[in-house]
Design goal:
The complex is a heterotrimer of chains A (306), B (300) and C (525). With 306 residues, chain A is mainly α. In chain A, 78% of the residues lie in helices and 0% in strands. The chains are: A mainly alpha (306), B mainly alpha (300), C alpha+beta (525). Chain C: Keywords: Periplasm, Signal, Transport.
Amino acid sequence: MLKFFIKRILEVIPTLLIVTVFIFLFVHMIPGDAARLVAGEDATLEDIKLVEKELGLDRPLHEQYISYMGGLLKGDLGTSLKTRRPVSEEIGARFMPTFWLTVWSMVWAVMIGLIIGVVSATKRNKWPDYVGMFAAVSGLSLPSFWLGLVLIQIFAVQLGWFPSGGMESWKSYILPSITLGTGVAAVVARFTRSSLMDVLKNDYIRTGRAKGVNEQNIVWHHALRNALVPVVTMTGLQFGFLLGGSVVIETVFSWPGLGKLLIDSVAFRDYPVIQAEMLIFALEFIIINLVVDLLYGILNPQIRYD
Amino acid sequence: MEMTQTKKEQYEALLLEEETVRSPLSEFWRKFKKQKLAFVSFIIILFIFVLAFIGPYITPYDITEPDYENVLSGPSAKHWAGTDAYGRDIFSRIIAGTQISLFVGLTSVFLGAVGGTVLGLAAGYYGGWVDRIIMRICDVLLAFPGILLAIGIIAILGPGLGNVIIAVAIFSIPVFARIVRSSTLEVKSTLYVEATRSIGARPSRIIWKHIFPGTLSSIIVYFTMRIGSAILTAASLSFIGLGAQPPSPEWGAMLSGGRDYLSMAPHVTLFPGLAIFITVLVFNLLGDGLRDALDPKIKE
Amino acid sequence: MKKAYVRFGLLLVLIFSLVACSGGEEGEKEVKKVDKTNKDVTIAVSATLTGMDPHDTNDTLSNSVQKTMIEGLVGFDEEMNVIPVLAESYESNEEATEFTFKLREGIEFHDGTPFNAEAVKVNFERVANPENGLKRQSLYGLIDTIEIISDYEVKFTLSEPFGAMLNTFAHPAGGIQSPKALEEFGKDVARHPVGTGPFKFVDWRPSEYLEVEKNGNYWKEGYPKVDKVTFKPVTENGSRVAMLQTGEADFIYPVPTEQVEALQGKDGIVVDSEPSIVVQYASLNTMKEPFNNPKVREALNLAVNKEAFIKVVLNGEADVLDSIIAPNVQYYEKQTPYGFDVEKAKELLKEAGYESGFKTTVWGGNSSTAVKAMEFLQQQLAQINVELEVLPMESGTLSDRIWSVENPADAEVGIYYGGWSPSTGDADWGIRPLIGGEAAFPPNSYNVSYYSNDKVNAGIAAALETANSDDRAAAYKIVQQEAWNDAPWIFLATTRTLAGKRDYIEGAYLLPDNSLSITEIEIKE
């Protein structure tokens, strides 16, 4: 297993290298004059030239790439063009809000999703199944920004129960995490249902039933354990994507997270920040894939790697 | 390589056999009709298609003509869904906007499916370095959440519905490529492809005649499921100001414009949101039904 | 199981109708009554603050926050008139090349460093030096020498006459920071602001909040009257308003125009709406057909209903623009509005040879207000058969396609919708960058109508060569008349500053340039 991991990690290196080139070119292909944007709306050409020089944007592109890579290898993500603070600080400050929002969204989404999934699978083709699955498809089909706006309208503006934006107390997490988690809950529910149904068809479950093992016991102890494998994979991937920060939801709720930062940085052509964020997304994706593989091994010992 | 007479016969026999094995249309219809929810969705989708074609001609009001004396009025007998910031009838605009959302959803997924299928077939059939390169690129593309990729692409290409379609198509490609690749591998390993190969048919013919049909059911199911998310993504992009141009009654753009009036005139956001929701919902339900009826190995 | 669908469907319908109805009752909705027991104030603002170094800042919002901590020699009052702040008095020579300031005595920076002529010199030498690469260098680039006459008297000599210099000194970028802090932190002062202002810096987390506390040692007797002020960036309009409604914020700005009516006077909420110096216009590329024809430009001005524009796009929170600058800008001179006359506009188009109209494009930002404005123009111009394509662009794209265009002949822009806020409050900065002839063409400046009129250019130049108000006013009078009659823009509106606050807040207001003043903020019982 250790060998497998080392191999996997080594495989990551060429991918990452391609990713950095890809990201760098991609970011610099975006039209727009960063110096002008940094210099401000009523800056004179003098100011703009000054800023361009100050930020090193007047150098040829390949030079910029080399110094970017040089910094990267030393673990330096560069300096934000907009705030002139180290990119690591900019991102660090935005990471935790996104992280906690993701965690809370996932916690409730996975719980609700699992319950709906299990109930649906065990009551297959009965009304709880239909309602559960209909709710799940609805959850997938809701435009999240719209759901966010509707929730703000009801619970923040009308009832005043929760704040409509920002990140103040635990209350601030409620509406955005519901908005963010709805889609995840739906996916988890559907996955759990289909996976569990597959497992329930298996021979050993039938044997168990024939032996008179309590149905609840079968579902919760035997079947679910095996059914969870694909659910975990999928949950891991969802977690990874949510960690990237939901651009739209963070915009709706003024959430000071990575998604919002990305939008702001793109608008400002803050190249070092955009590059760093995209790099982090790619890294997250890779790490989560690794973690998922590991969990596979733990949850289902039959799948072991040579 | 020349084909000998016997080999050609074998090949035709295989084709014939394939025909009999693969004519499950009636089988499919029988199963599909059982999926009541999907069936109802299918009917609604037909209705949406009709609306998309005739919508612009049947709107009760002109969809661009402003009425500044009657802005932001709530739903009433005269204006079923109320009026927007320019006094235009929202109900009419939603009807007229149907074709836009549908067009964006279908075209972008179609382009993505074509691109992904070609890549997936190539990767699966040829294997080796072709496979590795294609899949590595797909990995890189998949490493970024779709909407971020779309924002990047639109940042490069500029805003507008055409570019939204391209952006959504591009990030649909890797998903299709993966699905098609895995079905290709499966089909490739089945006997008849091995056999056709051994009698020396051209790769393009094998892929087109034998492998592609085998992957079709996965593609169809995924295609249907993807339309919903494409419509959602396009609406999200319009919502953050990167999509449709005014005065287009694109639903996401209508919603975005109404966001400023959330507390005083929620109907401006409510109805376009509902339209998006229902459309995406029926496509997803149809996709589910198709999956169950065709039963390919797609979990999501 | 069919029942189950029905049940579920009913549930959905119920939820949606709840949403729909809840909105309908908005008017009577209760706003939370807030009891204010402490002396802490929270202010929700519309964007993330960029930095606290006034010499290196170009957004009004960050400037506003800086002003709570860092003061200049002179500043602006509620009507954008220049008033003394750290300087007791000032004078200049007739040629507008020498400016002398007498400083207030006995003032200390927050870190205990004394405020004196030396501190003033250090600050302006810092900002004016191009090698320091500060964003506001060009404002003070004209300063040639700074002479310390005594500990509390300092004289600036400019390399050339600049009649608008006093306003430039009053600009927030002229803030005086502690020389000790400048030396200690270098460029990092942007995160360690030390000034003489009523409030002292406490903590700043860029995406969350910036906190300042009372400066007990403030030179203005009796101020400040609150203990702590927290600024929070809340970019989403609805969220900002909701924070005021729930009492999470005591003061917010800007209030989105759509919400003013709903908020005004509701249980303890007051919205202050005052004229700003921001002008909204649609510039017409006068070097391109058909806009090179003055009749076409006049026709376009006549075809747009400005009152309707204000009502629909800005929800009534604006005034019709009646010169190239807003009334609160110095040397403003009212012109006769074009009015709204579709028939006459059609006639003019006919005379110009465009009887059946023409097709063109409007470019502008992609904020919801800008998009709304452009869509409105599209509707209005349709009345005279001008088919307008609306192209919202994000700022980066605009910078490429409009502002960075090197050769005027290559400029693709036809109509551009935009706004301008002359941050110095002087006519010069309201006029020269926008219509100041060839010198102001992109990429040098912002003359995107590529307008050049010799009389205007001469007037602008003349007004800069003197510090005499009467001479300057006379020059700007001609400039404004000429520009108005030539109509390089569709003149639209001047917006209003909109601040929302709880009724117990007093002494906090927005200046016409949309900057905030809270020196005198207090909480009334």
